[in-house]
Amino acid sequence: MNTVTGITPLRNATRASPRSIGDILVATGRLSAEDAARILERQRQDNSQFGDAALAMKLLTKDDIDFALSQQFGYAYLGEQDTSLSPDLVAAYKPFSHVGENLRAVRSQLILRWFDTDRTHKMLAVVSADKGEGRSFIAANLAIVFAQQGERTLLIDGDLRASPGKGQHALFKLGKGAGLSGILANRAGLEAAQLVPGLPGLAVLPAGAVPPNPQELLGRAAYSDLMQIAAHKFDVIIIDTPAGGDYADAEIIASRAGAALMVARKNKSLVNNTAQLARRLQDSGVALVGSVLNDA
Ligand SMILES: Nc1ncnc2c1ncn2[C@@H]1O[C@H](COP(=O)(O)OP(=O)(O)OP(=O)(O)O)[C@@H](O)[C@H]1O
Ligand SMILES: [Mg+2]
User: Fold this and answer.
1) Which has the minimum average pLDDT: 9-13, 22-26, 208-212?
2) 157 Cα: distance to centroid of ligand 1 (angstroms)
């Protein structure tokens, strides 16, 4: 069986979900408290449901209401017959599996150690020293468990070197369109991020066309600008990276994010390589806020 191990769950670390639809939408910034009060008033007058009143008043979209309902009733997840995403997205297909549980434990640790320690802590790079250690797998599934908790989550594929058919584009079976490389070349904006049907609250920005100069693109002001805009629109931003031992890309991404989660693969990763990358990141001021021993 596939497991993601290496982190011990802590009690009471996840955020409690508010109860009413209005509360959920106000808490997640989709609705102002003032509008929520107006909807409640209309609901009382018409003796209707909160969602129906909000739709009639055009204060919410169906997507907002689906989002709130999935929060109210627990996790949004996909049936096994749904083939719209890769089966590797275990958090979406088998949220109650052992892997799902471990991912939620990692999420709790990250909230305690990073996201909840300062309001400006919104970004996290997922790094590892060598190829094929499971960075993309962990980044994608973590983004899903954050979205399932009600966080407005953006997953950015920062691996501008991935071969076609790999990376987040393949995992989320995204359509054609611009991606991170297009944004960095000033040919697109954050609207290139695609919402994931069936997983409310999650948007994925694919890497886009493979550019000849990834490292130089990531160093441009366009990258900092993008991250600044994203931080206004999302609560949690998870960034996938290429192998840290091969290029400086991961270091650039992690230092811009401020924090990184280190992935190592059981029986594969070399301790020296992982330790070396950890040192390099710490030297660039990156907080290493967690590590995952990926046991596939
Ligand atoms: N915990 C896991 N359970 C099952 N399969 C896994 C797990 N982790 C990784 N894999 C599989 O291992 C392979 C490599 O994983 P992934 O692509 O996530 O690694 P990566 O570090 O992003 O690799 P690359 O260097 O190519 O970007 C994929 O086929 C993925 O499906
Ligand atoms: Mg990858």
Assistant:
1) 9-13
2) 14
Q: Is the dihedral of CA 123, 217, 192, 168 positive or negative?
A: negative
pLDDT tens sequence across 217-271: 999 999 999 999 999 999 999 999 999 998 999 999 999 999 999 999 988 878 8
Strand blocks (E) in 82-178: 123-127, 153-157
Q: In a 3-state reduction of DSSP, which class is residue 185?
A: coil
Q: Return the structure tokens found at 110.
A: 């990250």
Ligand 1 interacting residues, C-beta cut-off 6 A: 2, 4, 88, 128, 131-137, 159, 162, 166, 243, 294, 296
Residue 234 sits in the same domain as residue 186: yes
- Find the 231 Cα to ligand 1 centroid distance in Å: 27
Q: What's the first-to-final CA gap in the chain, in angstroms? A: 7
Within a domain: 187? yes
**Amino acid code (one letter) for 108:** S
- Answer yes or no: is pLDDT of 10 > 80: no
CB 155 within 8 Å of CB 139? yes
Q: What phi, psi does 175 have (nearest 5°)?
A: -75, 175
Q: What is the pLDDT of residues 58-108, one digit of tens each?
A: 999 877 887 777 667 666 777 666 789 999 999 998 887 899 999 999 999
Q: Cβ(98)–Cβ(3) under 8 Å?
A: yes
46 and 174 in a single domain? The answer is no
Residues 67 and 84 in one domain: no
Pair (113, 224) in one structural domain: yes
Nearest to 196 by CA among 112, 109, 101, 86: 86
Beta bridge partners of 259: 287
| SS3 state at 98 | helix
Taking the C-alpha atoms of residue 59 and residue 32, their distance in angstroms, rounded to an integer, is 10
The Cα–Cα gap between 141 and 281 comes to 23
